[in-house]
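In this section we walk through a basic example: taking a raw amino acid sequence and producing a predicted 3D structure, encoded as discrete structure tokens. The instruction is simple. Fold the sequence below.
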Amino acid sequence: MASPPPKQPSPPLVQPAGTAWHETRALGQLAWPIVVGQVGMVTMGLVDVAVCGHEGADILAAVGAGRIFSFGVVLFGLGALRGLEPLFAQAWGAGEHQQLPTALARCLAFAFAVSVPIALLHLLCGPALTLLQQPPEIIPAAHEYASIRAVGVPAAFGFSAMAVWLQGQGRVRAPMLVVMIGNVINLILDLILIRGVELGAGWSIPAFGASGCAWASNAVEFSWLLLLGWICRDALRDALRTPRRALWSASAWQTMCSLGLPVGVQTSLEVWAFNVTGLMVGMLGAAALGAHVIAMQIISFTFMVPFGIGAAASARVGNLVGAGHPWRRTGLIAVAMGTAWMAASALLLLVLGETVCRLFTTESKVLAVVLTLLPVAAVFQVADGVQAVAFGVLRGAGDTRVPAMMNVVAYWLVGLPVGWWVGLMVTKEPWGVWSGLVVGLVLVASLMMGRLWLVSGRQTLRVTSAAPPP
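The resulting token sequence is shown next.
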């Protein structure tokens, strides 16, 4: 009996890039749930800070220090998982839907493999804070917070793996809804575990302080994992049937490492560059550091929109590449959308900056310094929007290594040295330190746009498990 013919992939469902309005609408539909999800994650952190802040300065400082350390090490893994999106987006665009459960199984295995060393790094929080000469009275609680948060790392990475897998198929609303539900759970658990609750009849839940905040965050991350796992239950059932040889294929893991690890490095080094800038500003005094924190908090909210557009562009471009369609038009439209938003935000920052800043502080010294930072912020956030979206576009095309190297050069070899020299040696002003961010961001934005134009002008080869990206 003749063997059955091999199963052919489904015909691509992705149409070529349309008019500017069509692409803007398509990107917007993908971007807004991602933006809302990011706002939800930031809101969780703000709730933690607000509840801890009412329990005392020591608890707030301990949670703050523990969160900074935890976030600093978790960034690498989250970035690495985002780098895998082209595998799913391009397979979806090519109509190879039968490959997606296997891709999900590999992504979850990759997430677990990355989560183990990152979870173990949390155990170094105490020694690291001691080395950085943080206040001795907060170190034990901060170390306990970070050690407990290590438990939630595998759950957070598992959730992120499924979210990226869905995002590559254009299914972005489910992760957003799960994050919103997690916000409600987080608020309830924070109030119970951080502050304690009297239940009556001699029963009560004690106040756990910083450790209670950590357990609440862990519970939220496990709820994310379970809720999104339930939504993806059919795909997970198929993923569990993946043959061991296919799951641990050397070529597949080489591809995942080639795509994901550069994005992990890029994400970490970019955020750490901003942290180093904060440390340099702190050398100029408490008022300068307070102004830096306020300005960065304001900018962080405006940045969520280009972050969402970049993620949406990554999915859309990946779909187009998988279907064999040109994608330059989509990439340029995405960059234009991000630039327009950040330019409008910069204008509002210049016009309403003082009013917004007064929501954060009434200290005249801090306010005076932060007002000198806003014009600099207005310039660099436009460049930040350009590079964030352009990097998302290139990620969708499977181009991650060269952009990551550009990022390292622009921030660490150019931007930070310029900020150190202008801010600490010449002007001795916070805006001088921030000038290094302007130089670094303008440089990386220019390099990213040049790379986008170059890569989009030639035939883009699909990223598959058999062929690592060039």
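Looking at the output, two observations stand out. Residues 30-248 form one domain. Confidence is low (pLDDT under 50) at residues 6-10, 466-470. In the next section we compare this with other chains.
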